[in-house]
Amino acid sequence: YKELLAKGENVSLPALVEQVRSRDERDMNREASPLRSAEDAIEIDTSAMSIQEVTDQVLNLLSLKGFVQHP
């Protein structure tokens, strides 16, 4: 949203959110290669988290899986 505004585009946040939701709905329900989460995907609800909290959560999960070392 901010990027589009910075480019001088006339955008409405609610309209943009609806466009993304609509696109995702189409992608999930298309016949060929529908958008799906991987079977082993880990979903993190970030809606109430700060950027730092999200980063820490992801790094902790990667550490638990043995991909990175995180204090």
What does it look like?
The protein has 71 residues and is mainly alpha-helical. It has helices at residues 2-6, 13-29, 51-64. Helix content is 51%, strand content 0%. It is built from three helices and no strands. The N and C termini lie far apart (34 Å). The radius of gyration is 17 Å and the shape is flat.
Spell out the blueprint of helices and strands.
Elements: H1 2-6, H2 13-29, H3 51-64
Q: End-to-end distance, in Å?
A: 34 Å
Order of helices and strands: HHH
Q: What is the makeup of the main sheet?
A: none
Proportion of residues in helical segments: 40-55%
DSSP helical segment count: 3
Q: Give Rg in angstroms.
A: 17 Å
Q: What is the overall shape?
A: flat
Structural class estimated from helices and strands: mainly alpha
Beta-strand percent range: under 5%
Low-confidence stretches: none
**Number of DSSP E strands:** 0
> What's the rounded overall pLDDT mean?
93
